[in-house]
Amino acid sequence: MADATPTPSAVRRLPRPGAWGVTLSLLILVAVFDTARLTSTLEFVAKALAGTAPFILFAVLAVAYLKASGAETLLAKAFSGNQPRMIVMAALLGGLSPFCSCEVIPFIAALLAVGAPLGAVMAFWLASPLMDPAMFLITSGTLGWEFATAKAVSAIGLGMLGGFGTMLFARTPVFADPLRERPAVGGCCGAKKPFSGAPLWRFWQETERRDTFRDTALENAMFLLKWLTLAYVIEALMLDHVPAEMIAGLLGGTGVWTIVLGALVGAPAYLNGYAAVPLVDALLSQGMAPGAAMSFVIAGGVSCIPAAVAVWALVKPRVFLAYLSFALIGAVIAGMVWQTLA
């Protein structure tokens, strides 16, 4: 009798449901177990997507333009000059650039290999997954300009906290010899190799750049659509089925523990920065404290799988733990400041 136990290679070949699969599964469960709410759930998702559509469109076109023009080359300028200046510039570019963490893995690997200061790299790594033009527009459209601006400032502040902290303790065993022996330099986004040289702002003059603009726009549009659709479905289910009293009891109030808990919950519960926006909106409407919401998005953004893998692939575990520690400390500080201001 043949062994029916699946081999490891066979298990690895099993298809993953993906965001669309999870969305469809949730809607099927609603249709089966809560049929009366299926229509209202679909209407909620459609209205939410329609309301976010202008922000998505602008963000998709802006990112595609920056990619096609080769603006990624401007990142290198953050890593020249004296180290404090490098840290500040790296935090600013990381918090404002339109490129995801995994796209810059080869770039960061090259910088580390040639001896770029780890403090500047850490500043960039911490800030880059938290905010970009697309995320700012979607966050502001759902949670308000004030929250989006505060998150962008927090991203830059977190980058500088980690950068200067790394510089201060650079001679300690934690940050000595930070690179893995054979760092992985492949990206997880399937992105094309960035254009080299000075940016060409009139990108439409070259066929390859026009193709990059088209491909980037389509890829980002589908990425945002699938994750926001899933997030809005989850938001609708949360509003219908999760008692507001429970959220208010766990994450409400003005105490420091609420903010710390928001950071600790955000780290493992995060999907990605775009999907988190509707979820936080639902949590806030159910009683989540503003400070806890901020610590949730900061800690979760840095520790989400794409951002964490980008760091883990290149540096040793002790440096990775320092990265996560900076994230939690910065998230709690950002939450406390936002709690006071909000």
Automatic annotation (TrEMBL):
Keywords: Cell membrane, Membrane, Transmembrane, Transmembrane helix
Name this protein carries in UniProt: Permease
Topology in the lipid bilayer: Multi-pass membrane protein
TM spans (from-to): 18-36, 48-66, 86-102, 107-127, 147-170, 246-271, 292-314, 320-338
Source lineage: Bacteria, Pseudomonadati, Pseudomonadota, Alphaproteobacteria, Rhodobacterales
Signal sequence annotation: none
PANTHER family the record matches: PERMEASE RV2963-RELATED
Family statement drawn from the similarity comment of this UniProt entry: Belongs to the UPF0718 family.
Localization per Swiss-Prot or TrEMBL: Cell membrane
Pfam families per record: ArsP_1
